[in-house]
Every structure is written in C-alpha cells, then in structure tokens.
Specification:
Blueprint: H1 6-10, H2 16-21, E1 25-32, H3 37-49, E2 52-58, H4 67-73, E3 82-85, H5 88-98, E4 103-107, E5 114-115, E6 125-130, H6 138-142, E7 146-149, H7 161-176
C-alpha cells in the first residue's frame, strides 16, 4: 500500500491521457442542496474512488471552482465529470431519459426506506443524497426507485451525508460487480 502525506494528496494532478484510460462505472451521484462545501468535495473523492461517470450538483449545492471544495476533493473536481441541475427531480428525469434501465436510490431516513444492505443494486445506478438537516424532498423521494436507510443504534438518528453516501455506494458497488 502506498502512503501519501497531506501535501502529496492535495497536489494530486491527473494527466488527461491517464484519466481517459480509466473505465468509468455507470454510477451517477446526485447531490441535492448539500450546503457544506467539505461534504461536496468529499463526494468528489468518493466519485473518483468508484470511477463514477458523473456527479450532478443540484439546487443550492455550491459548484466548483470553490477553494473549500477543491481542498476537500484533493483536486478530483479536475477529473471527475460533473454538471449542475436546478433540481434533483430534473436531474433524475434527464438521466432516465438518456440511460435505459437506470436504478435510482435515495439515501435517506423515511417511512418507505429499507435497510441499505437489503436492496438489490444494479448498474446503471444513480444515488441521491440531500441537505444535511432537511434531507431529500418528498418530491425527489417519489422519483426514486428505492430509499436506502442505514441503521442507527446510538442516540444520534442520522449520519454525515458523505459518510452515508460512502456506506451505500460501496455496498452498491460490491453487489453490482
């Protein structure tokens, strides 16, 4: 295993030729009204880790270039494809129009949610995460095929949006490979 220090991580520069050789997985991450730019940057790192095709930033989510997103993403905003959509519902609609058999899964606490590890994930896949305090809107949840929930055994009833996405994303990748 290669160990990199903070300085090495934050100066990661991708050669466009090398990036173009990476086979992208048909995974799309829809980020709906996530306000913390460090969460947004970390989501770009997750997208790079699984070679996701695209991150779609929606609503009030800050977009690159932003110094805090860049710092948290360790420059992955430079090679992870991203776009902006006004709403998550619009992003889902557009993806469904262009991608046949797309499965859309929200990561949210909801009365209709199921344990994240009991969902049959399939590619192509879009995962939706929402606002740190208000979550994903009912309209957006209605546009999803499934709602994945992570069990909580402590006092706190929710997890950080990026951490929740990571848990579900890696479970989905494991099950869909």
């Amino acid at each position: 295993m290669i160990k990199l220090g903070a300085a090495e991580l934050r100066t990661t520069i991708a050669d466009p030729k090398e990036v173009s050789k990476i086979k992208k997985n048909p995974v799309y991450i829809i980020v709906d009204n996530v306000l913390d730019t460090y969460n947004t940057g970390a989501i770009f790192r997750l997208a790079d880790a699984v070679a996701a095709k695209k991150v779609i930033l929606c609503g009030r989510t800050e977009t690159p270039p932003d110094t805090r997103i860049k710092k948290a993403s360790i420059n992955t905003t430079e090679w992870v494809q991203w776009e902006y959509a006004e709403t998550a519902v619009e992003a889902i609609k557009d993806l469904r129009f262009e991608i046949k058999d797309l499965q859309v899964v929200a990561v949210e606490l909801d009365k209709k949610s199921r344990p994240y590890d009991q969902i049959d994930y399939s590619l192509p896949l879009a995962l939706v995460v929402g606002h740190e305090s208000h979550g994903i809107s009912q309209e957006t949840l209605a546009a999803c095929d499934e709602i994945a929930e992570i069990p909580m055994w402590g006092v706190n009833k929710s997890m950080n949006v990026m951490v929740s996405l990571a848990i579900v994303l890696f479970e989905a990748m494991k099950k869909s490979q």
